[in-house]
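In keeping with the milestone schedule agreed at the kick-off meeting, the structural modelling team has produced records for the first pair of proteins. Each record is given below as a sequence line and a structure-token line. The laboratory manager (R.T.) confirmed that both were archived under the project's standard naming scheme.
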Amino acid sequence: MHMADALLAPAVAATMYAASAVTVGTSVKTLKKDEATAKLPTMAVTSALVFAGQMINYTIPGTGSSGHLCGGMMLSALLGPQAGFLSMVVILTIQCLFFADGGLLALGANCWNMAFYGCFVGYYLLWKPIMRSKLLGKMGAKAAGRIKIILASVLGCVITLQLGAFSVVLETSISGITELPLGAFVGIMQPIHLAIGLIEGLITSAVLVFVYEARPELLMDVDTSDSALQSKYSLKTTILILAVVVAIVGGGLSLAASSNPDGLEWSMFGNAEAGYSENMGLNEEDYGISSAAAEAAGSIQEKTAFLPDYAFAGSDSAAGTTVSGLVGSAIVAGVALLICMAGGFFRKKKVTAKA
């Protein structure tokens, strides 16, 4: 669902940048009030996990399309909505600048569509209420916790991905792209992202259930006072296991990603070459809006993207994908660490000034 610059008018792109920037500012301010350093290892490894996970497109059977993890629900369940949103912004920015995944002009919109809904709407509307509810109260605490995690993950991913997909439709419609009639675009985008969201919900629940079994206190809104909820592994071991998963997913499993277009590309261009529908039937080489802002953004992106499309420039070598997964995950983890450290530094500075 990474939007290209051609889908947005500059005014719409600027509006979405402003909305995302305000959310970033608010999230940073909130993060300063937390014990930011306590989130350091978890934020680093889970951000890297989402980056690696987004490299794997999974096939949606019978459609000719594919989807990939967004990750907002997963990160907000582990880090809270503010730290989760900042992690998603880091991921999307690095994808944009270093791997040319999503347009630079469209980055604000991509942050809003892929991060805001999963992190804030998903957390406050679904994760927190479900995890704190008395649902399944007669069941054992551990079993009830597993079911609530699965329920919150699946519902959260489905609903927030629907909101993100609809936002894409609205943003392109407001941008005045005549090739994309609103009704037809909605009719294609929403169902395919329903299927994508269901699979993401299952992936998210699998990861979160593992964390629940391994180290339940890492999850937001889990009542760890029950004696049944004992940690299976130490924090260090849990983080190490997740780091190994990042390396396997980003460096190895990413090679098995589906070559089918993702939900947004499939909606616009179809997949007639593989015998499926043309959908909107747009020309991939000539569609959308041309603007000076988009050209300038594209020029910057060409200079910063050292592994465009997660590959070595001008090469089809599988090694490019492996290197992209490992290098990208490391960069994401490093930047996430810096954000947490900065939050802790400014918080300490503020406390010192008051003293």
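The second protein of the pair:
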Amino acid sequence: MNQVILEIARQRRRILAVILVLLLLNCAVLVFLKEYLASAISDVQAKWSDLRRRAAVAGQNDASTIYRRGKADLEQLKAHIPHKSQFPRLLGGIFDTAASDGVKVGAVSYKPAVVKGNSALLAYGITLSVNGSYAAVKNFLADMKKSGELIVIDGMTMTNSDPYEEHVVMDLRLTVYLQEAP
């Protein structure tokens, strides 16, 4: 058996020499990667971890700062909520928006309710019907959404009774928030 292996080795010396050189070259590349690049990789990983830690710390604040910011944001929101006496002006603004968008306002109803947990805040539920072309109704809805007041669009339905005429009727449910006392 050993003689057979020696005979094959004598006949294929060049191939075995090439295989041996490639094996040594492979080992050298492996040692280079393990020794030289491993330390470079660990340095880069340490830098990356440090950057992530610093970014996480910068994004966090202590509880008192977060509380103060939240309180300031609530005060700013409260300043934007109009008083109950401003309801006619607000309703008139909705009618003006409808007129400027070219839609006709139909039936309007509203019902005030006190917001649970905050007796100084009223929620006026408004239901109104507008009609006009689809583009005009869509513009009215977009303008209502862009309104500077605290108006929430709760729901809407659109109907078109005639498939040959572009005349859309939209029933809109809104909630307007107002302050009870100035």
